[in-house]
Structures are given as structure tokens and as C-alpha cells.
Amino acid sequence: MAESFFLPYEYVDVLTNPGLQTSAGRVKLTQYLCKDRGNGGNDSATSFFKNFRWIKDPHGITLNQHVGGREIDLALKGQGNDKTFVKIWNFMLKNKDLLDKYKVEVCGRANKDGSKDVEQTGKIKKLYFDKMSDQAALQQMVQDRFFGMDCIGFIANFLIFTGEWDKYYGVSPRRYPDHVAKTNIDDINEVKPLDFMVWNGHVAMIDWVWEVLDEKRARIDMCQSSSGGPQCNEYVILRRTGGKGLKGGCEFTIDGGTPAPPVRGHFTIWRREGFWY
Q1: Is the pTM higher than 0.85?
Q2: Cα gap 81→74, rounded to integer Å
Q3: What pLDDT, on a 0 to 100 scale, did the predictor assign at position 1?
Q4: Alpha carbons 42 and 188: distance in angstroms, whole number
Q5: Domain layout of the chain by residue ranges
Q6: pLDDT at 117
Q7: Which of 229, 151, 153, 221 lies closest to 191, judged by CA?
Q8: Contact 33, 148 (CB under 8 A)
Q9: In terms of CB atoms within 10 Å, which end of the chain has fewer, N or C?
Q10: Which residues contact 17 (CB under 8 A, 6 or more apart)?
Q11: Which long-range contacts link 229-232 to residues 24+ away (Cβ below 8 Å)?
Q12: CA distance 80 to 74
């Protein structure tokens, strides 16, 4: 646990503005992807990785060997590291002939009954790389939900990016107060950058505190990955409700923001001891 020399918005910028550097140019990771069916599922990603991770390049090396099995598993469920995505994309660009080996399903968000929403089926090279530039092809595959990041993937990889974590640790949002950030913040005057905003099924971070408006409200920036992918929501009004939430912590809610934060409702705020900006 130590001082962070980065704020979450800087990691959002790495991912999306200008994006991740590949051999074909920058690709923006502007997609939310989560294995959970209720949060959209990962059907496009599953159809891609289940075969492509095992196909060998001319040297007999598979993507799984090149990137690492655990890293592929994390990318598949929306928790991959930025460096992992770059390795995957560069492997694809170097071995585009392998993209003609099998068909994939291009899927939208999972249907409400949990079934797949298959929009089209075809070979990746024909669907993407034969129709547009390599950079545009990868960007369209992000748009089509082959690659993306969920809320815990974003937070975990920010902690890796800033040097707080040495590797990925899988922790569900409701377990953050037990394993990641154990100090509850209940006073609006005490809220600081890098505090964790914890819902029962979502997690985000305070990026900046602009001003305390009164005893219950403050104007903040926050960062998260939600609908639309990794993002910074500016000039959000953080409001203390007075209710009790997770582990008895004081509940807060949010209003406004640009762009508007996709997840609202009530949450608690927690701080990781010894982690500050």
C-alpha cells in the first residue's frame, strides 16, 4: 500500500483516449463486457476465444501460449489487462490468415431470458479485416463485444496500472470492504480521490473532489466501467442519504454528471488504508 501517482481518469485515457497502441494504430477499449448474463454476457468473446486461443501460428505457438492461459480467461470475462489486449490484437494482426480458419458468432447483449442474441455469423477475416483497415477492424470487434472490460476488471487493472496490486485479484463488489478497502467513509467532508464507491453489484472510484457544497453534498468526478465501457463521469453530485448500506456503512447516492453515470441507486464509500494520491 502506497501513494498513487495516477488518478483513475488517467487509466481511462490510456484505454480510450487515445486508446491502446497496436501495430495497426490506436484501438479504444470503449466497451463494457461482463460474463454475467444479467449484465449482457460475453457471447461474442466466447465464440472467438474458444477456438482462436488454440490455433497455432507458423512457429507452432498458440495465442494461449503467447499471452498466457489465465490472461486469456480474464479477457474472456471482461477483466483482461490492457497489455493482454495489445498482445492479443498484435497476434491477430501478425497472423491474419488464421482468422479465416473458423466461424464466429457476432452477438449483442444476452436476451432477458439468458439466451444468445446472434446478429451474424462468419469468419473474422471476411467480416472485418477484408472490409476495412486493420485498426478499424479491431475497433469494430470491440464494438461488437469481442473485447471489453467490466467494473471489477477496470478497478483491478487500475490498481495494477498504478502499482498498488502486483497482479489481478478477483473480488466481487460486495466483498471489497472485506478484502480491498476496509475503512468506511461516512462524512461528506472526508471523501477523497481513490475512495471506492461500492454497490452490491458494482464498483467505481472517486477520481476528484471539486468542492463540498453543504453538509450532505459534494461535487466530484468518478471513474468506472459500465455501459459504454471505461469512462470518467465529471461534475457528479455526490449526496449523503443518511441510510445504512453494506456492512452498516453510510449510504450515498449520485445525481447529474457528464456523461451521466449509468449506475445510480445507493452505495457505500470505502478507503484502502495507505493508498492515497
Answers
A1: yes
A2: 8
A3: 73
A4: 37
A5: 33-143, 171-271
A6: 96
A7: 221
A8: yes
A9: N
A10: 28
A11: 229/15, 229/16, 229/29, 229/30, 229/31, 229/32, 229/148, 229/149, 230/11, 230/12, 230/15, 230/16, 230/29, 230/30, 230/149, 230/154, 231/12, 231/16, 231/259, 232/8, 232/9, 232/12, 232/207
A12: 5
Q: pLDDT tens-digit profile of 20-38? A: 999 999 999 999 999 999 9
Cell of 252: 450515498
Ranges of the chain whose pLDDT falls below 50: none
Per the listing, cell 490455433 goes with 55
Written as nine digits, the cell of 14 is 490510456
CA distance 29 to 119: 21
CA 251 remoteness from chain centre: 24
Mean pLDDT of the chain: 97
